[in-house]
Amino acid sequence: MEVFQGVQFARLRNWWEETYVTADEDGRSVYHYAPDRHRPAHEAIWAVQMVLAGAPATQYVLLRGAYGRYLGAPDAVVRRWPLSCCWPAPVVGQRDFDQPEVDAIMWRAVRRADHVLCLHDKSGRYLRGKLGILVLGGRPRLTVGDGRLNDDEKALRWEVLPVLPIPGRPELPISIVPEADLVGRLVKACFLPLQREIQFVAADDDGNIGEGQEVWDSFQYEGRSVQLLRNELEDRVGYAITVCVRAGRHGQHSPLLINLPHSRETLHIVVLRRNSEESTRS
């Protein structure tokens, strides 16, 4: 676990293919992509969160993506029938931290070289960037497999590349009005607008919500612009804010620096007063 000590943010690069673990814009999927100047850099950056869990207490690393969700697979299940080996490997995605301990998002590192390691979750399943296995559209998915390090270890090796925090708050993506051009008007005419419920709560300057006393307001929001969402929230609370997303009751607040996911899922927003202590720390 020494590789992650002192690291706030990191990219995970497949040691063999030089692809990066990337949170997809649907807010739930995870792929590993080659570097692409057309893809937002934030989606390949993971916040590093160290936790102690279990008895005796063991240190794990949690990796939190651009949408506030955590790198993890479905919960492990015991397969008791004889052909259990024929089941497809569980696919890794972006998960909510909705229980005090979620085994599938808690990772331990097995060091293989200087900054190269294998990651296994609390159930002993290793993170695999299975080489040559693509989904529709040619996007390589990640899976988790059993705890045996075998000759195919190149699919299990990940290089940890620390990312230095940028001083100050990065600018939000520029909002584009869909009706501004002919293509935008045609898209809006042919497809239902992307609408979701936004639930939000204002935190104090230390980022606390008040456990058991939190009151979430809600409204319907159309589109994906995080800039327009911030403007809407500022109108509602009456002061300048930083927009943070929280994925699950036990998830940490994550500044939302990219546009909203391509989904209709409810988004849980924690509003921080801009330039507050917690806002500058997040």
From TrEMBL:
Short name of one Pfam family: DUF569
InterPro entries in the record: Actin-crosslinking, DUF569, Ubiq_DUF569-assoc
Domain of life: Eukaryota
Domain DUF569: 1-130, 195-272
Protein name: Uncharacterized protein
